[in-house]
Write a structure and sequence with these properties.
By secondary structure, the protein is an all-alpha fold. It is built from seven helices and no strands. The chain is elongated.
């Protein structure tokens, strides 16, 4: 089972990591806000389809066409964990490759959005302070790494849950003889 976790986790991680690095390089770490988040989550879902394939592979080969929910869910979580760790490494690589101050850039965007909302006075000062706090916090790798991990792992958790629920039924996509 370890080989399945590693194989499909690395596949998922490389797919989502390549998408992340590619978009980061293409847009200097700042994709257009109207589609950047949607594209990111879409790439996560495409990459994490490897969870479904990995669980099905385990069910069809080692399980003889049958897998129970908890082992399937655990396998999906393990694959998602590997993919998520690669995603975190890809983001750190992106930060090095784009060679700009992402924390400062994002904090500036937070202030710009506050201006666009029409905030002024104390509300604007609070938004500026919040942006500064974010910038300071994000520079700390002990905060940034878990934040990045939490971007993708809940998606992997959801894909693992759905995959385990679907694939516990041996009539769904049965193994070919």
């Amino acid at each position: 089972m370890f080989r399945i976790v590693l194989k499909y986790g690395v596949i998922a991680g490389l797919v989502v990591g390549a998408a992340l690095v590619g978009v980061s390089l293409a847009y200097d770490g700042q994709p257009p806000p109207d589609w950047g988040m949607a594209a990111g989550f879409a790439s996560m879902l495409v990459a994490l389809s490897a969870v479904f394939v990995g669980i099905k592979h385990q069910r069809d080969t080692a399980g003889g066409g049958v897998i129970r929910f908890w082992p399937a869910f655990g396998l999906g979580l393990a694959i998602s964990l590997v993919a998520s760790l690669i995603y975190v490494a890809a983001w750190e690589l992106s930060l090095v490759l784009i060679d700009n101050d992402f924390a400062a850039m994002f904090a500036a965007q937070m202030v710009e959005r506050a201006h666009e909302k029409g905030l002024s006075g104390e509300a604007l000062a609070a938004a500026v302070q919040k942006a500064r706090e974010f910038e300071t916090m994000y520079r700390n790798p002990l905060v940034r790494l878990p934040m990045t991990f939490v971007e993708i792992f809940p998606v992997g958790l959801l894909v693992s849950l759905v995959s385990a629920l679907v694939l516990r039924n041996p009539r769904v996509l049965p193994a070919r003889a």
